[in-house]
């Protein structure tokens, strides 16, 4: 594992800076939207637009990788991301934010597909869980750092959006200057959703459901915080806690998944997380307890996402990995599009606890589906 990390560290460093820049806008938009007096429905549409962009980006990324290669795709998507980040501050209007969020989603999808397939090809089945976990750890380090940077300037100004763009530009440098050999251009091959489902039903269902959970966490946590009367510092602490929990548990759970059946770990984590979120929605809690629940939620959802990627890629031929990454990202984006929209409606009808009810329902659904697949195909490597 150390030998692999010695090779891929420039890629991981780039991912950290890219997520540090992109992570600022997730929390910032929720706060800035409140300052601009955008309604909950409007903010739900803004947040959902990101994942609509990811759907589109997941479809076009394999073609772009086949034509131009991983490095050029990452660079081009990085430039698009910088443009979108500056656009939010230049024109704070709902329709323009929706457009910028779509562009942001396309850019991040291209970056994710290119990076996921690159890292999967550099790792084997016996180390993939740890490599994916290290990759996810760098993402969470970036997002956690972004929450701290939210307090660096006035959210009503342009400074934070400019800072986000500068950090993304910095993140492109290790990608572009790295000596790590990128996969061959001709390796990218599309994979249909039907083919992916036959390969890994749990991977498909899991990515669809975690897409909804992750989009609620990323897009609606700041909206939940403003509706709950939290300060900007409290909101950034709550969001940061979700990623800190994932940071702490990501690698240990990835290490564990390389030594046991990954599906059992997915089911256990999903069931535990669903029960915790249901309790959070029902039982009145102090802010400190909410932060503790955020730590637990992040420690469950972020590793589960990585486990599903590793589970699906186990045993895949290298030329099929970009297509699998694209199809997984499409399913994740499909679930994510509805996440903010449904969460927003549940918060309108049930108040702030609707945020936790939504997450609980999806995590429990994933646990039930995983148990059903285990009973349908006991002992199978992929279910």
TrEMBL record:
Keyword Transport tagged: no
State if Membrane is listed as a keyword.
yes
Q: Which UniProt keywords apply?
A: Membrane, Transmembrane, Transmembrane helix
Taxonomy, superkingdom: Bacteria
- Give residue ranges for domain Major facilitator superfamily (MFS) profile: 2-377
| Cellular compartments per GO CC | plasma membrane
Q: Which SUPFAM superfamilies match?
A: MFS general substrate transporter
What the entry lists under Pfam families is as follows: MFS_1, Sugar_tr
Q: Which InterPro entries does this UniProt record tie to the protein?
A: MFS, MFS_dom, MFS_sugar_transport-like, MFS_trans_sf, MFS_YcaD-like
Q: Molecular function (GO) terms listed?
A: transmembrane transporter activity
Listed transmembrane segments: 42-61, 73-89, 95-119, 131-150, 156-178, 199-223, 235-253, 265-283, 289-308, 329-348, 354-372
Please state where this protein is localized: Membrane
PANTHER family in alphabetical order: MFS TRANSPORTER, TRANSPORTER MFS SUPERFAMILY
Task: State the protein's name.
Answer: MFS transporter
Q: Whose protein is this, by species?
A: Falsigemmobacter faecalis
